[in-house]
Design a protein that fits this description.
By secondary structure, this protein is mainly alpha-helical. It folds into 2 domains: 152 residues, Ribonuclease iii, N-terminal Endonuclease Domain, Chain A; 88 residues, Double Stranded RNA Binding Domain (2-Layer Sandwich), CATH 3.30.160.20. Helix content is 62%, strand content 8%. The chain has a 3-stranded antiparallel β-sheet, with helices on one face. α4 packs across α9 and α5 packs across α9. The longest helix is centred in the last third of the chain and has 42 residues. The protein is elongated.
């Protein structure tokens, strides 16, 4: 199964740009080696072009359409894998497993493993604010690259790439425990500790086409953790994880101290009888 993509006609490069073109070709060869696929040059360039670079260079095509496509390919392959490997799980649990694998933080970590940030074409503004390691940019670019592999090599090759990059995360997701749904786990923990019901204060920044959501998890008026994401749901899950870890650590420390305090009278009694 193959998609098609129209590419502009190649023009002979100016002599002054030959070094830049050679460097780009070398860079692409390195990335293609890590991906395991050689892609049509113009398609790979587009997959690596962030909107900030496009806007600063006369409105070049961005990677957003490829990102849209790659997101669907990634979701399909991961969902199919979970469906086949967990035949007895209900839909709700499958959705939680998928969310644990397909989220900006997980995608960004996979992108960092490929050193994807060093290949992205970024505008000066994003470059100056650490854009090459920004989770949202890495996640979006990885999806665009998956979309490019799908268009150039077909679904089988794109699926093989997704399996190679994400199967370790899929396997890990089955053993996450509390991490499978941090919001539910936080609510259960705060109920056990008698702290009350968690609430989430969410703010959003950025233009409509690239919003970043920040959530603060509060319990009893106290903020225990924050999180960011490309969606409100993702930001809340990350905030819930941070809060859960904070509250659980405090609860474990109290339990440890209680055990120590309970052991001291017994030790004193033993010493006295001796």
């Amino acid at each position: 199964m193959r998609g098609t993509v129209s590419t502009p006609k190649k023009q002979a490069p100016h002599a002054s740009g030959s070094t830049s073109a050679d460097n780009q070709a070398s860079s692409h060869t390195l990335l293609e080696g890590r991906l395991g696929y050689k892609l049509e040059s113009a398609l790979l360039v587009r997959a690596l072009t962030h909107r900030s670079y496009a806007y600063e260079n006369g409105g070049l095509p961005t990677n957003e359409r490829l990102e849209f496509l790659g997101d669907s390919v990634l979701g399909l392959v991961v969902t199919d894998t979970l469906y086949r490997t967990h035949p007895d799980l209900p839909e709700g649990q499958l959705a939680k497993l998928r969310a644990a694998v397909v989220n900006s933080r997980a995608l960004a970590e996979v992108g960092r493993g490929l050193d994807l940030g060093s290949f992205i074409r970024l505008g000066r503004g994003e470059e100056g604010t650490g854009g090459r390691d920004k989770a949202s940019i890495l996640a979006d670019t990885l999806e665009a690259v998956i979309g490019a592999v799908y268009l150039d090599q077909g679904l089988d090759s794109a699926a093989e790439l997704v399996h190679r990059l994400f199967d370790p995360l899929i396997e890990k997701s089955s053993n996450l425990g509390a991490g499978l749904d941090w919001k539910t786990s936080l609510q259960e923990l705060t109920a056990t500790e008698g702290l009350g019901v968690p609430e989430y204060l969410v703010t959003e920044t950025g233009p409509d086409h690239e919003k970043t959501f920040t959530a603060a998890a509060r319990v009893g008026g106290v903020s225990y953790g924050t999180g960011t994401g490309r969606s409100k749901k993702e930001a809340e899950q990350q905030a819930a994880e941070s809060a859960w870890r904070s509250i659980k650590a405090a609860a474990d420390e109290r339990a440890k101290q209680t055990a120590v305090d309970a052991a001291e009278p017994e030790a004193d009694a033993s010493s006295a009888s001796a």
